[in-house]
Design brief:
With about 140 residues, this protein is mostly helical. It is built from three helices and no strands. The chain folds into two domains: about 1-70; about 90-125, no CATH class. It is elongated and about 95 Å long.
């Protein structure tokens, strides 16, 4: 403990006769050295991570290719569009058709993504906004 106190007093005595500029210069030089050390360590960490990326990038690509090879993705081909005569419909049947169209779109999207499992439509409600996609 005495060595710490003697070191502190020795360093304090070093600044007793110095001007403010000399003390500021000493402090700035120590700050600069500290910042230089920090950035040097960060550069070393960055370099290590870059080397890891090069080493392990080839291994993950091989795994991804192996996973994609046995699996053949089927493309969803929509049926040819046929003209349908428009019949007058009431508001309730129009809403049911909209719900059916939305449900079919969600199902096709999930099949295209390869998502498995079921889903349940809980509710639909109109927002009454002026945007065209809300007027469907």
């Amino acid at each position: 403990m005495n060595q710490l106190l003697s070191a502190a007093t020795t360093q304090a005595e070093h600044f007793v006769g110095n001007t403010f500029g000399e003390r500021a210069s000493y402090a700035l030089s120590h700050t600069g050295v500290g910042m230089l050390i920090i950035f040097a360590v960060l550069a070393v960490i960055w370099a290590v991570l870059a080397v890891f990326k090069v080493i392990f990038a080839g291994k993950t690509d091989k795994k991804e290719k192996a996973a994609e090879t046995p699996e053949k993705k089927s493309e969803v081909v929509p049926p040819a569009a046929t003209p349908i005569a428009q019949a007058p419909v009431s508001a309730s049947s129009s809403d049911e058709e909209i719900v059916a169209a939305i449900t079919a779109a969600i199902t096709l999207m999930r099949e295209a993504e390869g998502t498995t499992g079921t889903f349940r439509v809980v509710s639909f409600r109109r927002t009454g906004g002026a945007r065209p996609w809300n007027q469907a």
